[in-house]
Amino acid sequence: MKIKVNPKVLLTLLVFFLFNGNIFAAGGDLDGVMSAMTIVTIVTVLFIAWLVVVYAELDDVNGEKFLKPLRIFNRFITRSTPMEKEHEILLDHDYDGIRELDNKVPPWFNFLFYGTIFFSIVYLIQFHVIGSGNVQEEEYQAEMQAAAMQQEILIRSGALLDENSVKFADDAATLSSGKEIYMKNCASCHANDGGGLVGPNLTDKYWIHGGGIVNVFKTVKYGVPQKGMISWQTQLSPTEMQEVSSYILTMEGTTPAAPKQPEGEIWVPEEENVDDGTKES
Ligand code: HEC
């Protein structure tokens, strides 16, 4: 059995495979990766098309029995005239040696053409009569909603929580969790009541590295390694650092059993530092 394969067909298939990954990527839903199902479907369709269009046309293949239905189907969808009869449909014109066959419009082409018209009617009714008619806008809204939900999940999981977004929280859950973290990790150096041991007193108004949730969060996160304060970002999650920082801030003004001398400077929250004209100089 000798099979001649039209190189043009092979080239077309190759180009198709190279490009359709990108086409699907533009679809968005598949995240640039075709599902196995899509690939299997495409390969199957291409194989059937090849069988009918190329293979069935080959004259020197054995197994006529197997080819017969394929050839009938081929004739049915292409209505092509067999080579030996081509002289019957040859037009009289001769354009510098180029001659033309008066082939019929192939039915597969008409199926496709009428098919698109049929599809457009179904589409129109489905999306613009039965549906709301605002297909793009709805898709947009749905995507925005999904994105907002994802962001919400990220925020709740604490993955987005850092010194730029951290907020002081004084709800019972945060503070009890913060206290637990403090007792376990921090009390050894800052004392159970925050009065200070190796580490400084956390109950007074004086801060070495600044008070307020943002500064405290930063000190906890990055630490002051050269002074013996560990960086906690590898051991505590952002949420846990936010909880323990909030807890520390609630200690201010309490009276520890053995307070260490204040260190650093009195910290004034930023809002009050802003010169709004009410303060002199
Ligand atoms: C190994 C001892 C040690 C442990 C454990 C420790 N700290 Fe500290 N911490 C220190 C020292 C020492 C300093 C002072 C650093 C300096 O002088 O710059 C400090 C400073 C701080 C400051 C800054 C205080 C200021 O005045 O600016 C904060 C806030 C703080 N620690 C919170 C914590 C928290 C929260 C934990 C537990 C998660 C913790 N520390 C655990 C030793 C420790």
Model description:
The chain is an all-alpha fold and 281 residues long. The chain has two domains: 7-104, no CATH class; 172-270, Cytochrome Bc1 Complex, Chain D, domain 2 (Orthogonal Bundle). Helix content is 52%, strand content 1%. The protein contains ten helices and two strands. It has helices spanning 7-27, 36-53, 64-78, 107-130, 135-157, 172-185, 187-190, 212-222, 238-250, 270-273; strands at 206-207, 265-266. The protein has a two-stranded antiparallel sheet with strand order 1-2. Helix 8 (212-222) crosses helix 9. The longest helix has 24 residues, at 107-130. The structure holds heme C. Residues 185-186, 188-190, 198-200, 207-209, 216, 219-220, 224, 227-230, 232, 244, 248, 263-264 line the site of heme C.
Helix residue percentage: 40-55%
Rg, alpha carbons: 38 Å
Shape: rod-shaped
Give the integer mean of the pLDDT values: 83
* Hetero ligands: heme C
Structural class: mainly alpha
Give the structure's gist in a few sentences.
It is built from ten helices and two strands, in the order H-H-H-H-H-H-H-E-H-H-E-H. With 281 residues, it is mainly α.
Q: Descriptors for this entry?
A:
single chain, 281 residues, mainly alpha, Cytochrome Bc1 Complex, Chain D, domain 2, 2 domains, two-stranded antiparallel ribbon, 10 helices, 2 strands, 1% strand, rod-shaped, disordered C terminus, binds heme C
Task: Break the fold down into its secondary structure elements and pairings.
Blueprint (H helix, E strand, L loop, with lengths): L6 H21 L8 H18 L10 H15 L28 H24 L4 H23 L14 H14 L1 H4 L15 E2 L4 H11 L15 H13 L14 E2 L3 H4 L8
The structure holds heme C.
Heme C (HEC) binds next to helix 7, helix 8 and helix 9.
